[in-house]
Specification:
By secondary structure, this protein is an alpha+beta fold. The protein has three domains: 138 residues, Alpha-Beta Complex (Adenine-n6-DNA-methyltransferase TaqI, Chain A, domain 2), CATH 3.90.220.20; 64 residues; 149 residues, Alpha-Beta Complex (Adenine-n6-DNA-methyltransferase TaqI, Chain A, domain 2). It is built from eleven helices and 22 strands. The two termini are 14 Å apart.
């Protein structure tokens, strides 16, 4: 059948407005501590795509929040709704005024457990974002959310639908937990492996261990693209991996091309970061993915000599960054930058080549395993999102 908006509905389903089946909780506490409330939740405690609340603040530390929530209610971030923050608490507390506390009006019409899934659909977020007002901190309103329309299955079908969605949610959460543990294992291995060997290995200045080259500074004339070459910049380098979805081009005239051209096995280091000095020195290996590729001056290139293995150098640089070695080689104003002369004198551990080969292999294996876990987590989350939008789409 079809409703007045010509949307085809599954037999037994009906079109409803959000406000017909969901209410906004008005529960308040003017003195949460005196009322026995121990925790508070702000927008910063809600993670996009994660229904669980893993972080919170202590009311005893001081808070001005008064909106009360209970276990099982739905918390929805009304400010900057594009951040897609929805959560279901398993404890009582107070929350920010920028968080709506939602609950179903009648569990016979809409199962409470189904509400957070409705709030995670693209249609609901699109409606929230589309009805938000304000430039710096756009907010939607309850009256706007009340008007959101969606297709609601009959009560007898909601339980089976909920079971399927809950299983997909648990699959996504479990996959993400595994991916996080894989990353933790990788970081733990780096610290343990290098800490155990530092006293046995020689230290060598980076300028002795390989050739260091800062990328080419971008000039207006180089954008003419008379002979353009692809180049990598800071946005293309993550922690141990390259992001190649957005690779730009500019001219590298004359000798500048040979000086800044990348070769397979070159290790890239991020030269600057606007967020934190701890982010400088992110490292990744260039493996020849892009032909005739060069680097811009937001990156440094380390080309190891015969005494250093590239895979080992990547692991060593990641360890050194975690220990704050590159922080010491940086200067910070509004942006943190590695200082070329300081980086050249930074000492890196250089064990025998056979030890390097073993470390490089172990590190590469851990990275491969972690990436596989992350891919599975991404696919599980996409499956949940696709199912949500396919079943509960308006």
């Amino acid at each position: 059948m079809s409703d007045k908006n010509n949307i085809t509905l599954t037999p037994g389903w009906r079109r409803v407005k959000f406000g017909d089946v969901v209410s906004l909780s008005k529960a308040r506490s003017q003195d949460p501590l005196a009322d026995g409330i121990e925790r508070y939740v702000g927008l910063e405690h809600l993670e996009p795509g994660d229904l669980r609340i893993r972080r919170w603040g202590n009311v005893a530390d001081g808070v001005t929040f008064t909106s009360v929530f209970k276990p099982g209610q739905v918390l929805f971030g009304k400010r900057r709704a594009y951040q897609r923050k929805v959560a279901v608490p398993d404890f009582s507390g107070v929350c920010s005024g920028d968080i709506y506390v939602l609950e179903t009006k009648d569990a016979r019409a809409l199962l409470p457990e189904l509400l957070p899934f409705i709030c995670q659909t693209d249609a609901f977020f699109d409606h929230a974002v589309g009805t938000s007002a304000g430039s710096l901190s756009p907010r939607t309103t309850w009256s706007s959310l009340e008007s959101f329309e969606f297709s609601l299955p009959p009560a007898q079908q909601q339980a089976s639908l909920l079971a399927a969605l809950d299983a997909l949610q648990k699959l996504a959460e479990t996959s993400e937990e595994v991916a996080l543990r894989a990353r933790d294992t990788e970081q733990s291995w780096l610290r343990t492996r290098f800490d155990a060997g530092l006293n046995k290995w020689r230290l060598m200045e980076m300028q002795e261990a390989g050739d260091l080259q800062l990328g080419l500074k971008k000039e207006r004339d180089y954008d003419l693209c008379t002979d353009p070459k692809p180049f990598l910049r800071v946005a293309n380098v993550g922690d141990g991996e390259l992001y190649l979805d957005d690779v730009r081009q500019m001219d590298f005239p004359g000798h500048r091309y040979e000086r800044h051209r990348l070769l397979p096995g070159d290790v890239l280091l991020t030269e600057g970061d606007i967020v934190s000095p701890w982010n400088v020195g992110r490292a990744a290996i260039f493996r020849g993915e892009i032909e005739n590729c060069c680097i811009q001056n937001t990156l440094m290139r380390f080309r190891p000599n015969a005494s250093v293995d590239s895979e080992y150098a990547l692991a060593a640089f990641r360890y050194m960054r975690s220990k704050g070695v590159f922080v010491q080689a940086a200067v910070t104003t509004t942006v943190s930058h590695l200082v070329d002369r300081r980086v050249r004198r930074v000492k890196m551990p250089v064990p025998p080549l056979d030890v390097q080969a073993g470390i490089g292999y172990e590190h590469s294996s851990l990275v491969t395993a972690r990436k596989a876990c992350e891919i599975r987590a991404t696919e599980a989350r996409k499956l949940l999102t696709t199912t949500l939008n396919g079943i509960l789409a308006p």
